[in-house]
Amino acid sequence: MGSPLSPIIADLVMESLLDNVVSRLNFPIPLIKKYVDDLVLALPPDKVVEVMNVFNSFNENIQFTYEMEENGRLPFLDMVLVRQQDQTIRTEWYSKPMSSGRLLDFLSAHPLHLKMNTVNNFMRRVREFTTNLSNEAADNTIDVILKLNHYPAPLRHRLLNRGIARRTNTPPSDETQVVYKSMLFVNDLTQRLSKSLKAALPNVVLAARYEKTTKRLYTNTKDVIPPEMRNNVIYRIPCNDCAASYVGLTTTQLKKRISGHRSTINQLEELVTSNSDSPTTKFEIERLREKTALLQHSIDEQHRFNLEKTQILDQHRRQTALPILEVCHILNTPNTINKRSDIECLSSMYAGIFHTLHTKRSEVTNTATITEIPNSYQNESNHVVPT
């Protein structure tokens, strides 16, 4: 699902399946049509079960069900195949019984041209899928659906009388490159701005975006991930004995990274409390000093860090963005003990990100203490700083 290869692979599998099934049957199939995994077949009534068993024996993970025609009518895709008395087949536009008939409502906050495009596409489908019937029958179906979606009677009549206006989009010439810009849709205002912009900048096309999206209408139904279970985060560990703090990143779960810090701190404490002046002990302490700036601060200042008050500063789904975010937070967090070798060559183009981080940090400081993980970071991966 979601791969552009899915339709191609599905067609290849179905072609192989059909070749296998047809070769195993001892009688010809008069009619067989396929659209991806939907099939319509004409079979002798006493051969239906046999054909069904052959289809389902091809692969245990590919199992079919079947539907027989009733009163000469058989739904297939968006049509109903109707077998007439002379054994010819006509088609009608079809919607499932559970269908509500909802299109883009006329009263919705969308541009008028978008509503007209939706209606024109709907009318085209109904008329092209309906054969051997009068235009009046198809138009009645269209009128009922448009009325259900609050399209006014004068507009419905005008659309039905004029038919469907087919527009051909002429591709832009090589000399003019079309630029698309989005803008929040405000009824009447957006249309006026679009006309003014088209007159001043003919190569700029304004696309409307909408405030009432599904994400805004419905609350997040997923459980909140505990802070210690999150990955791809930038975190901050405060020092117990001074105002310093350590900023780091981890692509694994935060609790695993904190467990690693705790392990090295315990190892350092064992070496310090051993009171041994042996070269081996000194070598091990120097080795730990080079591991992280956290251990270096602990050795030089004889301070200890409070791992229980670890705070998530940021989170990003792309691991490649984490090093840049870490550098930005190091520069914007006061009294950090991190080494400066990784941030000396940072470009000034990130000044805007620094300002954003500083503003966010100020908001968090005003609403939460350092021992809390701010609520803005507890939402499901919503706090993302642009890079």
TrEMBL record:
Q: Where are the transmembrane segments?
A: none
Q: Which CDD domains match?
A: RT_like (cd00304)
Pfam families per the UniProt record, alphabetical: HTH_animal
Domain named Reverse transcriptase: residues: 1-98
Q: Which InterPro entries match?
A: HTH_animal, RT_dom
Protein name, as recorded: Reverse transcriptase domain-containing protein
Q: Which organism is it from?
A: Aedes albopictus (Asian tiger mosquito)
Q: What is the lineage of its organism?
A: Eukaryota, Metazoa, Ecdysozoa, Arthropoda, Hexapoda
